[in-house]
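hi! just following up on the protien thing from before. the input was this:
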Amino acid sequence: MFGLGYQELLLVVILVGIPVAIWRVAMRLAREHPNRQGIGGWLLVVGLGVVLAPFILGWQTLNAFRYADWTGMEPFQIVVGRLLMGLFGGLFVAWSIYNAVLFFQRHRWFPWAWLGLNGLLTGVTVVMAIFDPESRAGLFSLLYWTVIWGGYLFRSQRVKNTFVR
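and the predicted 3d structure came back as:
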């Protein structure tokens, strides 16, 4: 079929078919129940990610400190590198905690704060992918889910009804 093997076809089904099917079901449910509000439905998946984000980002920052290769660098470069890693890692963890607070307070700024954090993470991952080709897979995954959940956060009626404070 179009010169694609089963692995490529499966990848297309996973990356395109499943989100399209989920979107169609969500749109049908939104038409049937237009005034849904509160943390429920697909917003639970977003909430799970928001709750886990500080732990995941903290773990990644800790691993960046533990496994960084500083060989061949001057002491000044090592200090600046560790300082920047700690600063960015702390910023990401603090911002993700702030996102969790906004989420559970149902604040109207939550979708924008969530998009800002994911946009900044995507930007940092792009810079990392330029210097480290192994991190390109992480870039695609982060960009893919940012687009999917960002679209949900800015188009869903449930989100518009929930985050009103």
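Residues 7 and 52 are 31 Å apart (CA to CA).
The chain has one domain: 35-162.
cheers
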